[in-house]
Amino acid sequence: YLNEPGYAQLVRTVDLKKKFTNNDSVYVDENAFKYLWKVNLNEECIVLPNIGANIGEVYYVEPSELPQDNNVLGPNAILLKTDEDTYFVFTSLNNGNFQKQLFENVGSSGQPKFNKTELKAIQLYMPQIKEQERIGQYFRNLDNLITLHQRKLDHLQDLKKALLQSMFV
């Protein structure tokens, strides 16, 4: 692992959670990148933390939104690539039914964890691909709308804070 920018970024779940705003990025050289080819984030995919407090979180990864051209997934996470509509699967993994089944399979040790075999045992309802695409697009649009409104709310809260400070100066 490298602390300075290298050939590729090692994407950890903390990076995804904080949307790459943390200042402690980890990088790998070209040899490590080639060694980790199975967890290359070069196409849209889903990342599930499988060890620790972040179990149950689900991250949709769009390669064009990653900070580097070359990216590989870090440890303690499972990478899902699917032939189905990826955003539909992402939305399905965020629903209560999947979450309930996941936590039924999580080990009850001090450090909660699950593995790929336990993940494969969870069943999801999968409609025809055209329906998946329509549902996936609907939720993508809805998530984008929520993000836009959140940005507007953040801007208005900053404005309110600035106006309050200028009132009491």
Description:
The termini are far apart. By secondary structure, this protein is of the alpha+beta class. It has helices at 13-17, 30-35, 86-93, 96-105, 116-120, 129-167; strands at 8-11, 26-28, 45-49, 59-61, 71-73, 77-80. The longest helix is centred in the last third of the chain and has 39 residues, at 129-167. The protein is built from six helices and six strands; from the N terminus they run βαβαββββαααα.
The helix/strand class is: alpha+beta
Main β-sheet description: 3 strands, mixed
Overall geometric form: globular
- Give me the side-by-side strand order of the main sheet: 2-1-5
Radius of gyration: 19 Å
Cα(first) to Cα(last) distance is 49 Å
Bin the strand percentage.
Answer: 5-15%
Helix count equals: 6
What is the mean pLDDT? Answer: 90
Low-confidence stretches: none
Instruction: Estimate the helix proportion, in percent.
Output: 40-55%
Oligomer: single chain
Topology summary:
Blueprint lengths: L7 E4 L1 H5 L8 E3 L1 H6 L9 E5 L9 E3 L9 E3 L3 E4 L5 H8 L2 H10 L10 H5 L8 H39 L2
